[in-house]
Amino acid sequence: EAKREGRNQFHLFRPAQKANAEKALKLASCLQRALEEEEFSLHYQPQIDIRTDRVIGVEALLRWRSEEIGMVSPGDFIPLAEETGAIVPIGEWVIRTALSEGRRWISPDREDFVISVNLSARQLKDPAFAAKLRSMLVLYQFPPANLCLEITESTMIGDVEQTLKVCEEIVDMGVALAIDDFGTGFSSLGLLSRFPFGTIKIDKSLIRDIETSSKDAAVIETIIRLSQHLEMDVLAEGVETEAQLVILKRLGCHEVQGYLCGRPSEPDAIDRLLKLDFAQGSDSAG
Ligand code: C2E
Ligand code: MG
Ligand code: MG
Ligand code: MG
Q1: pLDDT (tens digit, 9 = 90+) per residue, 121-140?
Q2: 258 CB under 6 A from ligand 1?
C-alpha cells in the first residue's frame, strides 16, 4: 500500500509542502518573539552624490538574527510581519533606533545629511502614526529635515485620501518622503504628482541591465525627466558597476546607492566612513 502511494506523483510533493508549512509556522513564531528577544539590528547603506563624491545620507535596513533559525533576510520576514501586523511595533522600533543611532551623524558640517527609513503601508494606516513620529523626533532631538521616510507605490493605493492625509501631516512636520522601488508598480502617474515626495528612488531591477538594454535606459531617462518636471530629486538604487554610474551621470541622475559605493554596514562602519568623507571634503575645499 505504501509502495502504491509512493508511485502516485501527487504524493511526491507532500513532504516538501509539509516542510514548507512547518517552516512558515516556525518563522512566524520566532518573529513574534524577535522584538523582546532583541534580535533586530539596523544596518546603514550610504547614499552618494556623484558630483561631489560625498555621502549625503544613509538608508536604514532592518536585520534579523534569530536565535533559533539564524539570519533571515527582510525579503522573507517583512511580508510576514506585514501580514500578521507585527510590522507596526517592529517599524516603530526601526524609527526609534534609526533616530537614536543616526543622531550623531548630523552635525553643523553635515547639516543636510539624511537618514532614510522604510515605512510599510500598515504603519501609515495607523491613525496615531504622525503623533508617534512627532514625539519620537522630540525625544531624540532629531531635526525633522534630516529624516526621510520611504514608501512604495503599493502603499499609495487603497484608501488614497487617508494615506495622502498622513503623508501631508508628515511633510508638514518637516520630514521628507521618498517613493521607493519606483518603476516596479503600476499605480497611476497621476497619483505621483498628488503625493508630496521629495525624492524618487529608481528600483534596482531597472538599473541592472542599463548597460545592455536600451529599453531600460530609456525608461530610466524618462523617470529622470519626470522627476525634474515634478521638481523631485532622483536616486538610483542597486548601482553595482562603474559603467552604470557613468550612464546615470550622463542621463542626469546624480544620487546613487549600491554595492559599488558601499554595502549596508553597522553604525561603527558609518562613523569611520563619515570621518574619511569629511577629511576628503575639507581637502577639496582647500
Ligand atoms: P529597499 O528599501 O528597496 O532597500 C534596498 C535593498 O537593496 C536592500 O535589501 C539592500 O541591501 C539592497 N541593495 C543595496 N545595494 C544593492 C546592490 O548594489 N545590488 C543589489 N542586488 N542589492 C542592493 P535588503 O536590506 O535585503 O532589504 C530588502 C527590502 O526589505 C527593502 O528594500 C525594503 O523594502 C524592506 N525593508 C528593509 N528594512 C525595512 C524596514 O525597516 N521596514 C520595512 N517596512 N521594510 C524594510
Ligand atoms: Mg528603501
Ligand atoms: Mg528600493
Ligand atoms: Mg533620499
Answers
A1: 999 998 899 999 999 999 99
A2: yes
Q: What pTM value is reported for the model?
A: 0.93
Q: Give yes or no for residue 240 CB within 6 A of ligand 1.
A: yes
Amino acid at 133: L
Round to whole Å and give the CA distance between 56 and 12: 53
ipTM of the shown complex: 0.97
pLDDT tens-digit map of 246-260:
999 999 999 999 999
Whether 91 and 59 have beta carbons less than 8 Å apart is answered as: no
- Could you tell me if the CB of 45 is within 6 A of ligand 1? yes
